[in-house]
Structure formats: C-alpha cells, structure tokens
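Weekly modeling sync, notes
Attendees: S.R. (lead), two postdocs, one rotation student

Agenda item 3: backlog of single-chain predictions. S.R. asked that every request posted to the team notebook include the full sequence so nobody has to chase files. The rotation student volunteered to paste the first one in as an example of the format we agreed on. Action items at the bottom.

Example entry:
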Amino acid sequence: QFISKLHNDVPIVYHSPATSIQMTNTLVPELEKIFDITGIKPLIAYERNNGGVFEMERLASMNRVGKFDIFRMPNIGKEHNERSVRLGWDTNTSSRSGMLQALKDAIDHEVIRIYDKTTIEEMFSFIICQTSQTWKAQAERNANDDCVMALAIAYQLYLTTPTIVEKQDRYRSRNKQSFDPMAV
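Predicted structure, as returned to the notebook:
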C-alpha cells in the first residue's frame, strides 16, 4: 500500500501471491521508478513479523543508489530515536489495536481515499471477534486481511513520518527559537 501525503490517497497497491524474496526483487525497481518520476524518496516498511526483518535488511542492502528510505520503528510510548536500527514495522499487542483504530478513524472521517477493489473488499470482511480473553479485529473466516493490515501500517508511516517540507519547517522554527540577536 502506497499512501501519497500530497494527495491523501492510496494511488498504488502491490498485490502478489509471490514470496517475500520475489516481492523484494520486484519492488526495488518500482521504488526507484517512483523516485525517478516524482523526485521524492518513497518510504517503505515491511512488517517485521514472520521473516520480515530479514527482507527489510535485504531491501536496505539493495538500496545502492539511495532512491528510497526504509522506515525505522520507534518504540511505542517512548520518544522517537533517530538511531533506531529496527527496520520495518512491528505489529504486536501494543501497536496493533492503535494502528487499526487510526485507520478506522481515517476512513470514517474520509482523511484518505482508497481506490483498490481488493483492499475495499477486505475491509468489508474485517470484523471484531471475541477470542478466549479479549476482542480482536481480524478477517472473518475464509477471508483475508493482508491489504487491510498493510494499509494500517502504511497509514502509521503517513502519520509518523514528516515530509521534507515539514522537516524543513521544524528546522527553521527550532533555529529561530534558539537564535538570540542580543547575544551576538
């Protein structure tokens, strides 16, 4: 799932029954093409669970020309550490419910536009079920939720990662606050 911060939509969705190794090989040229066309480095994160860590490391090593960035997972509930080495997104008990709620809110308030038919169909079969101890949002029986989970992760990147303009504005405001003309 690729979310555009400029247009607040999901213009590209990559679907494939391929293995993660095959997907990475196919994805690198597409990421480079996005950069070549837009001049903006796409930010990417695989889910770290179930072998995703290995593929994130491999993807990072394939970024020889630096045309895309790889998301570094902050510690939930702690201050973001720029030097974090945890490449990709951790879906766990502390991040799952929050990321799904944020996506639900974005959809309910029409913050992002989604065009992909498969993703929309998965959303209609994404339900809340009672497990042995709690309630959990997931795909109903015999349905998939890969696109929904990927979109929830992409939306977290959308929310937590500033654009180049936002970074420049933060830098300017930080330097303005620390500049004291009387000290010169």
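Discussion: group reviewed the output briefly. Residues 20-38 form the longest helix (19 residues).
Action items: rotation student to repeat for the remaining queue; S.R. to check formatting next week.
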